[in-house]
Amino acid sequence: MSSALFFRRQPVLPGFTLSFGLSVLFVSAVILVPLTALPLYLSGLGWAEYWQLITDPRVLASYQVTLKAAALAAVANALIGLLLAWVLVRYRFPGRRLMDALVDLPFALPTAVAGITLTTLFASNGWLGQWFHRFDIQITYAVPGLVLAMAFTSLPFVVRALQPVLEDLSVDYEDAARTLGANRAKSFLYVVLPHLRPALITGTALAFIRSLGEFGAVIFIAGNIPFETEVTSLMIFVRLQEYDYEAAAAVASVVLATSLLLLIAVQRLQHHYLKRLQGN
Fold first, then answer.
1. Residue 217 burial (CB < 10 Å; 0-12/13-18/19+)?
2. What DSSP string describes the chain?
3. How far apart are CA 220 and CA 117, in angstroms?
4. Res 8: pLDDT
5. Cα separation of 122 and 132, whole Å?
6. pTM confidence score
7. How far apart are CA 268 and CA 272, in angstroms?
8. Per residue in 132-146, pLDDT tens?
């Protein structure tokens, strides 16, 4: 639909001009204007100084730790989110609505509270952590703790992306595959999974992007050990504590650019799959 045709259409809701103007104002005031602070802080830096700040060995190590933990959390969420969405859509059982509501808990719960709770539970003397400690597995103040915190806060992205697709996918497809001789594994791999793939990829990508900037849940369970568990969001916080605002802005610009590029890639991926569906 062209933009000209869009503006000529009679909207369903009255007051299109006012609602459109308020939407643009909100996006500008809440998102675009705060982001302009980054270029302002960076304007006093030369390219060599900027490059030195974003390639500092400690900062590079934080990139590596962040990408590794976010990737592991995204993979875990893809598997757990797929299973959870499947159970919520395909089965009817007591407590299903409660389980469905709990999926959104990470969105409602302050991330700092999540971090404190996970740290308490998985500390070496915590309720759950003591069992891992017996096998010499450390969760808190180690990479597994980072992955756990990131997976907790980003799981809803995968579940909520898959649920509508699963609800629209009739079980008749699975029954038809079974009548044609396919076993359960083949029915899932060749009939169900191809329909879920776009939503699964999109949800997993959004969970990965969300994990890249996670701070509240991570700060308590990570231990902030340089070159080991220090993620990039913590690196920015450290620079701010040192009153080195230009260094914090430089590192933040890398996170912002990476997240923005990944979001654009997700949008293009969604557009690609939508065109394929419309073509079919």
1. buried
2. --HHHHHHSPPSSS-HHHHHHHHHHHHIIIIIHHHTHHHHHHTT--HHHHHHHHT-HHHHHHHHHHHHHHHHHHHHHHHHHHHHHHHHHH---TTHHHHHHHHTHHHHS-HHHHHHHHHHHHSTTSTTHHHHHHTT---TTSHHHHHHHHHHHHHHHHHHHHHHHHHHS-HHHHHHHHHTT--HHHHIIIIIHHHHHHHHHHHHHHHHHHHHT--HHHHHHH---TTTT--HHHHHHHHHHTT-HHHHHHHHHHHHHHHHHHHHHHHHHHHHHHHHHHH-
3. 9
4. 58
5. 8
6. 0.83
7. 6
8. 888 888 888 889 999
Give the number of C-alpha atoms closer than 13 A to the C-alpha of residue 207, restricted to the C-beta side. 37
- pLDDT tens across 4-36, in order? 555 556 666 666 777 778 888 887 777 777 777
Q: How far apart are CA 187 and CA 180, in angstroms?
A: 10
What average pLDDT does the segment 44-70 reach?
A: 91
Both tokens of residue 115?
Answer: 């971090």
Sign of the C-alpha dihedral computed for residues 254, 256, 260 and 266 taken in this order: positive
